[in-house]
């Protein structure tokens, strides 16, 4: 049975538990500036900064050449590198989970073009994972790393077009 090959971009912080969970049943290429802090036999570090398009593309292409195409990707990529998510998605034949901050749910700034750009890629199933916040009585707080990882793993299992981890409403209640 083939194990599959997952890509995780930004998996050394809040997505570390996601990397470790995926590595139980598939090969995982971990692209990060410091990928060595997550270690397991089936985790293959690719030290690259997604803000450097040439280095990022070379790291992804090298991983595909070594372990085959990505059938799953989880990408947490800051908006400072706006072309990096699509660069990663072009190398995926399967599901691409785009992890986005709560700003992606801001009702005053809809972005219908984002989904359309990804859905135009052949062989890609685009999924959004929006990181919201937690309401506790009359207060709100940001999600913990454990809550984020559990939410992303839940989004992988549920396989819906859009998953919100925590809540994003009311928008005025954001911490």
Question: Helix/strand/pairing class, anyone?
Answer: alpha/beta
What is the C-alpha radius of gyration, as a whole number of Å? 16 Å
CATH superfamily: NAD(P)-binding Rossmann-like Domain
The name of the CATH topology is: Rossmann fold
Average pLDDT score: 92
Backbone shape? globular
- Structurally, how many domains make up the residues? 1
Task: Describe, in plain words, how this protein is organized in 3D.
- It is a single chain.
- By secondary structure, this protein is an alpha/beta fold.
- The protein has a single domain (5-173), classed as NAD(P)-binding Rossmann-like Domain (Rossmann fold, 3-Layer(aba) Sandwich).
- Helices cover 29% and strands 30% of the residues.
- It contains five helices and nine strands; from the N terminus they run βαββαβαβαβββαβ.
- The protein has helices at 16-22, 53-67, 84-89, 112-119, 145-158; strands at 5-9, 27-32, 43-47, 70-76, 92-100, 124-131, 133-136, 139-142, 162-165.
- The strands form two sheets. Strands 3-2-1-4-5-6-9 form a seven-stranded parallel beta sheet, with helices on both faces. Strands 7-8 form a two-stranded antiparallel ribbon.
- Helix 1 (16-22) packs across helix 5.
- The longest helix is centred in the middle third of the chain and has 15 residues, at 53-67.
- The model has no long low-confidence stretch (mean pLDDT 92).
């Amino acid at each position: 049975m083939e194990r599959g090959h997952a890509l995780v971009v930004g998996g050394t912080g809040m997505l570390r538990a996601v990397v470790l969970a995926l590595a139980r049943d598939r090969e995982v290429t971990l692209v990060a500036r410091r990928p060595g802090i997550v270690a397991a036999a089936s985790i293959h570090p690719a030290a690259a900064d997604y803000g450097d398009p040439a280095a990022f593309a070379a790291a992804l292409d090298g991983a595909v050449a070594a372990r085959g195409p990505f059938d799953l990707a989880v990408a947490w990529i800051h908006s400072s590198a706006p072309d990096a998510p699509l660069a990663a998605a072009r190398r995926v034949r399967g599901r691409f989970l785009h992890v986005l901050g709560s700003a992606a749910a801001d009702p005053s700034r809809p972005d219908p073009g984002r989904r359309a750009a990804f859905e135009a890629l052949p062989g890609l199933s685009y999924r959004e994972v929006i990181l919201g916040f937690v309401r506790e009585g009359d207060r709100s707080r940001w999600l913990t790393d454990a809550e984020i990882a559990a939410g992303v793993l839940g989004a992988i299992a549920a396989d819906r077009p859009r998953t919100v981890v925590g809540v994003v409403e009311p928008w005025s209640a954001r911490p």
